[in-house]
């Protein structure tokens, strides 16, 4: 039995979560993508999996009512956040009100997975972008439902397809549920990420891995960086042990270029101006390009308030946060000037087919390095030339001064 067309499956775990006979499990296919597999001996043909699959129902999308350029003023909290620190701020607000926050964090093996937090200290794990598909797990949506039925305020932050999966699983609207969807570039299969990290740990003899980062306001934005516990000082400080800029790092480059995304991401149903969550957050790309913006563009998030629930929640939050949260209202059309993820899915790269051809026999690490070797070489050459030009320009300006 096929739950939905495989090319449309997002791996959201709604079908796995809803099966009353525990007959569905997520397994990797030939290309490392997670897809549901049905145990025909346990399946009772109840079709509950089909009824909760977002690809088989009409999803409700809403056009944003307001658009803000936003950021928190606490530089320390924002240092390892992707842009404005808005997800962290919303999470803290919910927990201070006795709520529960669901978001993506690394597990003990540094695999991105969805967890929940009930204490402020626990949301530190959610900070920073994790550029791989996060595993929802077969019990997560049930945990959300149980908290909601107990009357707890629940915040769920995830990709639009994860939120669609949650809503279809719940099959009703809960007034105490706030959903925040991320403006999603697309996701690479989790297997690609775990293989890359395992390779780097072995190659660079990394012990006691403490963190993996892709973004941050710490001078290492758009770099894949690995950190281990600082053994020299016997402290909890993290020591940087590996860092490469995005287009010189094979995993990161494959993700950014659109070589290694899940197949369904290239035809994503959620890459549209209308949104599936109550609130949408992401980078405010194109901010200030057409209409001047007097603040720091690089440390600013876009916040879209998509319905009355999201609007009232965020306005109440903003009043309470006061001067620690800055919201500058902008026209939504400004953010729509960057088409990928909001007007159309990210495009499939010409090297995608070559990567897929190699992957089944070579695995991720060898395949991506073979496919991108010339691209990465050009990027390194371009960076070195730029550095030398800057050095020469500095020397000339010094001598003419």
Write a structural description.
This protein has twelve helices and 13 strands. The chain starts with 13 loop residues before the first helix and ends with a helix. By secondary structure, the protein is of the alpha+beta class. It has helices spanning 14-18, 48-52, 75-78, 86-96, 140-149, 160-170, 190-203, 250-257, 308-321, 332-335, 352-371, 373-400, and strands spanning 24-28, 34-38, 66-72, 100-106, 112-117, 154-158, 177-182, 209-213, 223-229, 238-245, 279-283, 301-305, 325-329. The mean pLDDT is 93. The strands form three sheets. Strands 5-4-6-7-11-12-3-13 form an eight-stranded mixed beta sheet, sandwiched between helices. It has three domains: 6-56, Alpha-Beta Plaits, CATH 3.30.70.20; 66-189 and 260-335, no CATH class; 190-257 and 350-395, no CATH class. The protein is globular and about 80 Å long.
Instruction: Return the string of H and E elements.
Output: HEEHEHHEEHEHEHEEEHEEHEHHH
Regions with little confidence, pLDDT below 50 for 5+ residues: none
Distance between the termini: 77 Å
Supply Rg: 22 Å
**Main β-sheet: number of strands, strand sense, barrel status?**
8 strands, mixed
The chain-level mean pLDDT equals: 93
What order do the strands of the largest sheet run in, or round the barrel if closed?
Answer: 5-4-6-7-11-12-3-13
Number of strands: 13
Percent helix range:
25-40%
Count the domains: 3
Helix-and-strand structural type: alpha+beta
Which shape, going by the Cα principal axes?
globular
How much of the residues is beta strand, in percent?
A: 15-25%
